[in-house]
Amino acid sequence: MHLAYPTVVAALLFSVGVYGVLARRNAILVLMSVELMLNAVNLNLVTFDIWYQDRLHGGQVLTLFTIVIAAAEIGLGLAIVLLVYRNRRMVDVDRLRDLAEDTARPAEVEREAEPVEEAAP
Amino acid sequence: MIWLASLAVSLPFLAAFAGMLFGPSLTRVLGGRPEAPAPLRNGPALIACLPIAVSLVLAAVAAFVVWRDPGERTGELTVIQTGSVPIRVGLQVDGLAAVVGLMVCCVALAVQVYSVAYMRGDRRYSSYAAFVSMFTAAMLLVVYSGDLLVLYAGWEVMGICSYFLIGHHWEDRANSRAAVKAFLVTRLGDVGFLLGILVLGTQAGSFEIDEILRDQGALSGTTTTVAALLLLAGVAGKSAQFPLHTWLPDAMAGPTPISALIHAATMVAAGIYVVARLYDVFVTSTAALTVLAVAAVISMVGAALAALAQDDLKRVLAYSTISQLAVMAAGLAVGAYNPAIFHLLTHGAFKALLFLSAGCVIVVAGSNLLAHYGGLRRGMPITFWSMTVGFAALAGVPPFSGWFSKDSVIEAAQHAALHGGESTSATALHRFSVDDTSSLQWPGDVVPTFQKLPSAYQSELSIDLRAATAVVDLPAGVAWLVYLGLLLTVALTAAYAMRAWLMTFFGEPRGTYEIREPSRFMSWTVAALAVPAAILGFFGLGKEDLRPHLGAALLSVLLVAVGAGAAYLLWNRDPALDPARALGGVRPVLARAFYVDELYAVAIVRPVQALARYVVTFDRRQVDGAVVGTGRGARWLGGLLRVPQNGNAQTYLTGLLAGVVVIVAGVVIFL
């Protein structure tokens, strides 16, 4: 099998993931897109493991690691999403703006330096 | 010899610190009440009076030694290497320094003793006494200094002490303003003085006074003229001569003993003393002498006229000080070195007396204004007679001290006027011949107890002659101006002295106070000072150029009679009124001293204030504006960058990705 097929599939998969992460508004779908990206990477690892005929199968081993990490990550991510949902009754990423500066109380209050009156008359 | 002088200088200096640090605790140790201790249990007073008394003894011993064995003694304490002209910290005792030092110590002791009573109960007495000690030490340093820079140090310390003392009652805004004015005006002159010292020192290659006087013949005429004129600026500032005289009348804001100290012994005497000290430098410069003479004539006549119309007793005396110092300056300008120094000494005696007795009057009457006095002679005889002696000496009534000294100045001025420039050279030659024998010609009629002092004075003055051998080259017109100015001043002085005397002591009392003698400390000090004020003049009899001459003497007595008589006749018409009413429309002009203060206010103070205000505005608008503007600019830029930070994590990631793509593309394309 030519190397192009799996790599192109992986690239497409990764692109779909990137698009999902950047553009989807539902937090769960964003997490799923992250999974897509991870799996695209896994596909690449397996492909090149076969392609290089690595005797120790480092690519495949690393893929197993990635799957484990992805499982842990998705668990954590879903827990966060659940908490968000409990607090706000929605998981719309676009409306989660807590990272922004609080516009009601700007970081540095406009403390207009009042001219200090000189001691001399 | 030098250790005598060093001790005399350092004792009051140390006393100043000791009094400030330990004075109040000494009071407690001695068991005095802290707020108003008895004089003998008053710690600050003891620490102030005893050292100056010891200094007086030391100065008297020094003067005695110089009298027995005339000549100049110099001593070097240390040399400060500066890389170019070294500073020799040295003292010098010669005739001039010895007599002036003695005079300073006498007056300072009198002032300290007097202050014990005058300032009793004052909260800040300990700092007051300490500053008086410091003031005295600084003046003694000026007097005994052998090096111009050491002299300058004393000169400056005096300036700052005068500031503190004039502003002693700083709670009153007017007093602190007067202190600032005195400080700033004298400072203005000091700038010139320092420059003059530097010019002299660098050109002569030494700051030592002896060295400069020895080498000054080698200096170019321009250098000496420039140096002398610059020094004159400092002299005019300290001695309150014409352009810079305005601080002195305002300095009356200080306590009265301070006025006595400033006017008689320390501050103002320093200016004249420095001219006498560097006389050879001044003598070689006709321009400097002419400036000195003209400033002196303006000061003496103007101040005497102003004194005529003052309502405040202390201000009358203040203007009389300006006038009398101008007489000395005029004497120096016409080459009358000895008479000028003689007048400095007699003036020190009678002006200290006048101020201290004025203090007695003020304490009793509770007012400075002449209009509140009257009839005081009945209740306070000691003050009355002492002040009478003082006024007589001031006006130049024979045989009081002022008559002798003023007369000898007038005589010299007359000589200079009649014989033009070369007259003084004749006098100088004449002095030479008299020089060796004069110290033996004591007047036989002097009281025996004072035999020592007069001889000391005598001998000092005869030593001084040697310093003044140079020919004074003054334009004849200026000499005439000086002579006529002196004569006019004599009449005016008699008039204002008479007016102040009559208004204070005669007529009916115009106030509701009890007329009595003040504390014994005060009246006795005054009485003691009356003695030298009365008889100091006789000490000059042994000296040819200090002896009264018939023509000049008769003329000045006549003028005194005219001035005093006019004042008396005006007063006699209605003793309840001020004789100055006869001045009519001129009176306000004279009372404001020809509006010099107002002129300065318009010409100097207001422009400077306007400039200061402009600078403040410039600072606020431009400098502060630049700083604040930088801040605002940074904030605005930050605002621009704040827009992308909208809290949407996806936007951040998009930006991140775009950045990575750009970098990768750049790497791929360009590498």
From TrEMBL, chain A:
It is found in: Cell membrane; Membrane. NDH-1 is composed of 14 different subunits. Subunits NuoA, H, J, K, L, M, N constitute the membrane sector of the complex. This is NADH-quinone oxidoreductase subunit K. Its EC number is 7.1.1.-. Signal peptide: none annotated. Its main location: membrane. Belongs to the complex I subunit 4L family. It is a multi-pass membrane protein. NDH-1 shuttles electrons from NADH, via FMN and iron-sulfur (Fe-S) centers, to quinones in the respiratory chain. The immediate electron acceptor for the enzyme in this species is believed to be a menaquinone. Couples the redox reaction to proton translocation (for every two electrons transferred, four hydrogen ions are translocated across the cytoplasmic membrane), and thus conserves the redox energy in a proton gradient. Keywords: Cell membrane, Membrane, NAD, Quinone, Translocase, Transmembrane, Transmembrane helix, Transport. InterPro entries: NADH_UbQ_OxRdtase_chain4L/K (IPR001133), NUOK/Mnh_C1-like (IPR039428). It is an enzyme of class 7 (translocase). It catalyses: a quinone + NADH + 5 H(+)(in) = a quinol + NAD(+) + 4 H(+)(out). The chain crosses the membrane at residues 6-22, 29-52, 64-85. It comes from Actinomadura meridiana.
Automatic annotation (TrEMBL), chain B:
NCBIfam families: NDH_I_L (TIGR01974). It comes from the Bacteria. It is found in: Endomembrane system; Membrane. Pfam families: Proton_antipo_M, Proton_antipo_N. Its main location: membrane. This is NADH-quinone oxidoreductase subunit L. Residues 145-415 form the NADH:quinone oxidoreductase/Mrp antiporter transmembrane domain. The chain crosses the membrane at residues 6-24, 45-67, 96-118, 125-143, 149-166, 178-198, 258-276, 282-309, 316-337, 349-370, 382-401, 480-501, 521-541, 553-571, 651-670. It is a multi-pass membrane protein. Residues 80-128 form the NADH-Ubiquinone oxidoreductase (complex I) chain 5 N-terminal domain. Gene3D superfamilies: 1.20.5.2700. InterPro entries: NADHpl_OxRdtase_5_subgr, ND/Mrp_TM, NU5C-like, Proton_antipo_N. Keywords: Membrane, Transmembrane, Transmembrane helix. It comes from Actinomadura meridiana.
